[in-house]
Amino acid sequence: MATFSLATGDLFTTIAAPGDLWSAGALPRWSNADGLVGDRFATGSDEPGQPAGAMIGRNFGLWTQSGLSAPYGSLVGEIAGVYRLLGSSFAGPAWGDGLLKLYYWDSNNFDNTQYITVRLSRTDGHAVPEPVSLVLLGVALVAAASVRRQA
Q1: In the chain, what are the domain boundaries?
Q2: In whole angstroms, what is the distance from residue 92 CA to residue 86 CA?
Q3: Collapsing DSSP states into helix, strand and coil, what is residue 4?
Q4: Which of 14, 69, 111, 134 is the most buried if burial means most Cβ atoms within 10 Å?
C-alpha cells in the first residue's frame, strides 16, 4: 500500500505508464493500471516474458467491493473509506480528508505479481515537494481488513 496525504478538494493527478504491467495471476491476467478490460498481447519485451503475439490479458469484468465496481487489475484510490477508480490517468479533486491509499483491485491477492510505478502530484498550487513516484506491489483489496503489502 502506498499513501499520499490530501484534504477534500485538493487537486491531484496520478499517472501510470500504459505499458507498465502487473499481474492478477496465471495467464491471461496481465494488465496496466486500467485493469483487465480487453485482449492484451505480448510484445516480446514486456514483463510477462511471453513471445510476441501471445495473449497475456483479457477482459475479466468488474470486481465490486466497498461500494465500488471497477475492472479487475485496475489502480484504485481510497480516501477516508471511499474508493475511486484511478486507472492509468486521473486528474481531479480529493474526495475526502486523509491519506490517499492506492490498491490493485482484485478478489485474491495471493497470486498477484509485479508492480507498476505511479507518479502522483498536487495540482492546486499548495506548496508540496516534487511529485512523488511510488512503486505499487500487486495487492488485492480482499476485505476491509485485508492483508496489505507496503511498497
Answers
A1: 2-137
A2: 10
A3: strand
A4: 14
